[in-house]
């Protein structure tokens, strides 16, 4: 469908206002290997959250050590800060220990078969891939111990799950091609690279773990860290890593959450709305807010984000002018609420 000037003005207005109201505090300077995270505020256990972490083979000892460190710190952040029940986290590694499974194609398939029986429609599943990836010009894969699985095969596994909300972080090299295969309604896909041609070691995963443990990753100061906030924070730290070393950046992370199969380096053109409304932590509004008034603003924002998501889903059923007018109205209301939240936290 043709994108009208009104639609573009509306999108520009909301994102311009969001930039003003949700400006991020510059993150701390990072070295090439982010330090181990420090557990911060603990979120209450949330039985609705599930995670699968797959740590693929390093190939070289240095890479294997790095991947293992990132995996351990990610697992710790999910359980100690964000309230993921330990029994809801399925861990597959190159060298299994402490109850983890071997990261083989067969174990991945068995894990998803089990999830098919455990998950409910209202649950949220996070899938994290840490390691190396490949792209041969036709097919994109994530490296496992033994035969690898392709993006198409992961999509088939995810499509069989009953949950409506799935968040995929493929933080491997050459991961950009996964976006095209995994894109779907209700799905958020983050890749460490923008194409299959970026095949050097991807350091995005390390900076992503840093984001999960950084207070200033909560850019809008609402007491939550959303998928979009963590993505933006890690993206910035990754870019700073290459700039500080005077290196040519060999990875450019992308996010896709509107089902169009096109990943972007930042929230724009309707991208990022679902990621903004999907949180790692499980604090309720009263716990997250400093006052009852702020709690009401947070509920208003969640309502507006839900209405925007529903409107986008009904786009094909509405006249273009009706759709654009409704979208602009919701965007303006959302920008005002975000500004009020920002002011309340000042």
Describe this structure as you would to a colleague:
- The protein is α/β, with parallel strands linked by helices and 346 residues long.
- It folds into 2 domains: 5-20 and 286-344; 31-283, Rossmann fold, CATH 3.40.50.
- The chain is built from 11 helices and 10 strands.
- It has helices at residues 5-21, 61-80, 105-118, 151-159, 178-182, 204-212, 227-244, 273-276, 285-288, 292-313, 320-344; strands at 49-55, 89-93, 101-102, 124-130, 133-135, 140-142, 149-150, 165-170, 187-191, 254-256.
- Strands 3-2-1-4-8-9-10 form a 7-stranded mixed beta sheet, sandwiched between helices. Strands 5-6-7 form a 3-stranded antiparallel beta sheet.
- Helix 1 (5-21) runs parallel beside helix 11, helix 2 (61-80) packs parallel to helix 6 and helix 10 (292-313) runs antiparallel to helix 11.
- The longest helix has 25 residues, at 320-344.
- The chain is globular, with a radius of gyration of 20 Å.
- It starts with a helix and ends with a helix.
- Residues 1-8 and 12-40 have low confidence and may be disordered.
Q: What can be said about this structure in brief?
A:
By secondary structure, the chain is of the alpha/beta class. It is 42% helix and 12% strand.
Question: What is the CATH fold-level name of the largest domain?
Answer: Rossmann fold
What percent of residues are in strands? Answer: 5-15%
CATH C-level label of the largest domain:
Alpha Beta
Kindly state the percentage of residues in helix: 40-55%
The tally of domains stands at: 2
CATH architecture label name of the largest domain: 3-Layer(aba) Sandwich
Give me the secondary-structure category. alpha/beta
What is the number of beta strands?
Answer: 10
Main sheet attributes: strand count, strand direction, barrel closure: 7 strands, mixed
Number of helices: 11
How far the N terminus sits from the C terminus, by CA atoms, comes to 41 Å
Overall 3D form: globular
- For the biggest β-sheet, the strand order reads 3-2-1-4-8-9-10
Radius of gyration: 20 Å
